[in-house]
């Protein structure tokens, strides 16, 4: 009987620590899964307040010449209409000056007019901070800004003074 008690104690010891090790392995697996997916989270932050990226994250892609383009959505959460005049996508942070940069324009004034609660969607090329075309390969990280220059529908017409929305984007380039 005495040897039987030692076997039972050894079995209980193994069962107790076996379950503990199993729980630790499961928790580590879940944490690993979460943290590997976190590194790929796409981010899109828009300033000033009142604009968002809508329901869709921007898509940064490369064309056959490896030029980088961004497809984005700008949601108007303001109380009035917004008239988009021109846009720029720049790798990195916003440069001190964008004079001399090639800008993208909406197809028409009507296409660039965004009513309250509506969104504007477009695909534009991305540039380096020196104003030249940005090239990349697929699956590379991308951090940059989309500068959207606009006027409110009640702004004084005929002036070349624009307001600016800045979309800060962090994602991976798709092929």
Describe the SSE topology:
Layout: H1 2-38, E1 43-47, E2 51-52, E3 59-62, E4 68-76, E5 82-91, H2 109-112, E6 113-114, E7 119-127, E8 141-152, E9 163-172
Short description:
The protein has 175 residues and is of the alpha+beta class. The protein has helices spanning 2-38, 109-112, and strands at 43-47, 51-52, 59-62, 68-76, 82-91, 113-114, 119-127, 141-152, 163-172.
Overview of the molecule:
It is a single chain. The protein has 175 residues and is of the alpha+beta class. Helix content is 23%, strand content 36%. The chain is built from 2 helices and 9 strands; from the N terminus they run H-E-E-E-E-E-H-E-E-E-E. The protein is elongated and about 95 Å long. The termini are far apart.
Helical content, roughly? 10-25%
What's the number of helices?
2
Q: Domain count, please report it.
A: 2
Largest sheet composition? 9 strands, mixed
Output the structural class.
alpha+beta
Labels describing this entry:
9 strands, alpha+beta, 23% helix, 2 helices, 2 domains, 175 residues, Immunoglobulin-like, 9-stranded mixed sheet
């Amino acid at each position: 009987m005495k040897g039987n008690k030692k076997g039972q104690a050894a079995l209980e010891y193994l069962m107790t620590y076996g379950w503990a090790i199993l729980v630790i392995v499961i928790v580590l697996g879940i944490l690993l899964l979460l943290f590997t997916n976190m590194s790929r989270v796409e981010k899109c932050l828009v300033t000033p307040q009142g604009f968002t990226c809508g329901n869709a994250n921007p898509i940064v892609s490369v064309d056959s010449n490896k030029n980088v383009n961004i497809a984005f959505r700008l949601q108007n959460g303001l109380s009035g209409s917004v008239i988009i005049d021109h846009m720029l996508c720049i790798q990195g942070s916003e440069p001190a000056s964008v004079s001399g940069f090639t800008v993208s324009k909406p197809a028409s004034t009507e296409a660039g007019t965004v009513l309250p609660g509506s969104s504007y969607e477009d695909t534009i090329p991305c540039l380096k901070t020196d104003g030249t075309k940005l090239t990349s390969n697929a699956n590379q990280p991308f951090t940059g800004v989309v500068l959207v220059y606009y006027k409110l529908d009640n702004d004084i017409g005929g002036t070349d003074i624009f307001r600016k929305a800045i979309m800060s984007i962090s994602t991976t380039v798709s092929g």
